[in-house]
Specification:
Elements (H helix, E strand, L loop, with lengths): L19 H17 L2 H16 L5 E6 L5 H13 L3 E7 L2 H11 L5 E5 L13 E5 L7 H13 L4 E7 L3 H14 L3 H12 L4 H11 L5 E5 L3 E7 L1
Parallel strand pairs: 1-2, 1-4, 2-3, 4-5
Antiparallel strand pairs: 5-7, 6-7
Length: about 230
């Protein structure tokens, strides 16, 4: 198996007809993976970087595109509460099942607005201060990502950050083994290793950002096998 080039094979979760009960198990397990393998920590670092660079005063508005089940936004809420930073959170996802799950899981504990829409069709009265995505970019082709990077830049007032997977043989074999042994979700067992094959190496991000004319950018490798990309306007 070669990981020199990104795979464009579709993940099972990309199917619009996945039963809701299966999505629930998938979202719950992704939250565990993000917690145990440092995904939420990477998100907090990206947010901290932009907040420190911008020195925000007052309420900070943060939007996540491809928010899935809302676990990343919940992690951000806890971080901002600890820092005593007033905030407004927005979660955007085009899958109704994901928005339904997020509302059911976090509706009583989160100060968030949930929008069921393709992110490209969202109309802001006032653009968010910060827009970000986590494990979202690898669902798109390189051509689509160039347009997405431009959208992120145009639709954020302070800047944006991205948290996504490093395409690496060790990451592929490790997540393949872990999900085989511990996952109860057929979606996770199939999609998690494939997500790594659809992930990125540093030269991918350098090329994509240059094509989108979104520079300068901070591209930082993170444990466990992730890349954090931060762009401040």
């Amino acid at each position: 198996m070669s990981l020199r080039q990104r795979s464009y094979e579709k993940e099972l979760l990309d199917d619009p007809d996945v039963p809701f009960k299966d999505i629930v198990v998938n979202m719950q397990e992704l939250n565990k993976v993000n917690t145990l393998l440092g995904g939420h920590a990477v998100t907090r670092r990206g947010l901290s970087y932009l907040l420190e660079k911008a020195a925000v005063n007052g309420i900070v508005t943060i939007a996540e595109i491809g928010c899935g089940g809302g676990d990343n936004l919940f992690a951000i809420q806890r971080f901002l509460q600890q820092k005593k930073i007033p905030f407004q959170l927005i979660g955007v996802d085009m899958k109704p099942a994901c928005i339904t799950f997020a509302r059911q899981a976090y509706g009583a504990t989160m100060k968030a607005t949930w929008i069921c829409s393709d992110y490209r069709e969202v109309q802001w009265d006032i653009p968010p201060d910060i827009v970000y995505s986590s494990l979202f970019c690898h669902h798109f082709t390189d051509e689509e990502l160039v347009a997405q990077l431009q959208w992120l830049y145009q639709n954020s007032r302070i800047g944006f950050f991205i948290n996504d997977l490093h395409r690496h043989p060790v990451a592929y074999q490790a997540i393949r083994l872990l999900t085989r042994c511990f996952s109860k979700s057929y979606l996770v067992k199939h999609d998690a290793p494939l997500s790594v094959k659809r992930g990125f190496v540093k030269r991918d991000w350098t090329r994509l950002l240059a094509q989108a004319q979104v520079t300068p950018a901070m591209i930082s490798w993170q444990w466990a096998f992730r890349y954090l990309i931060c762009v401040k306007k």
